[in-house]
Amino acid sequence: MIYFLDSNFLIDAKNWHFPLDKRLDFWKWLLSLGQKDILKIPESVYEEINRGNDELVNWINENKNTFLCKKVECIQSLSSALAGYGEVTEIDLEQLKADPYVIAHALAVNGSVVTEERPKETLVIKNKKIPTVCDGLHIPCLTLPTFMWELRGTLP
């Protein structure tokens, strides 16, 4: 199984659960998963994270070669991912940011998505959350605790 990280997973991990300056073992664990091709970070997530200016930006750029999966790798699955949102316009796509690409990467390889978003039923495309879209597309979608539980045998 390959797991694709959403931006908010990384941001919440850094801000709340595993600060980079205090919980380096967690970040080393993620790196080891990336080195085994178990964990990937979509290019669109890199773009979102790089809008910031903190230690997460530094960490993600230092380890880019380990985690990066380019948008081109999911292009064939993007239309299926977008169908999970409904009728998406170019404006909607811009507002959805990295989310459809994270889902498309998982679709392309029968992988899973890891996000801290919570399901939300809504007809407004820009407000649809990853777990809701993944559920409709039958893609496994995990939060941090579930992700760690699934990979507990690899924890440091």
Domain module tally: 1
Number of helices: 10
CATH topology: Rossmann fold
Outline: globular
Q: What is the β-strand count?
A: 5
Structural class of the helices, strands and pairings? alpha/beta
Order of helices and strands: EHHEHHHEHHHEHEH
Largest sheet: 5 strands, parallel
Give the termini distance in whole angstroms.
19 Å
Question: Roughly what is the average pLDDT, rounded to an integer?
Answer: 95
Radius of gyration: 15 Å
Write a structural description.
There is one protein chain. Helix content is 54%, strand content 9%. Strand 4, helix 9 and strand 5 form a beta-alpha-beta unit. With 156 residues, it is α/β, with parallel strands linked by helices.
Name the descriptors.
5 strands, globular, 10 helices, 156 residues, 9% strand, alpha/beta, Rossmann fold, five-stranded parallel beta sheet
Quick description:
The chain has 156 residues and is an alpha/beta fold.
Give the SSE map.
Blueprint: E1 3-5, H1 7-17, H2 24-35, E2 39-42, H3 43-49, H4 55-62, H5 64-67, E3 68-69, H6 75-83, H7 90-96, H8 99-109, E4 112-114, H9 130-137, E5 141-142, H10 144-150
Parallel strand pairs: 1-2, 1-4, 2-3, 4-5
Helix pairs in contact: 6-8
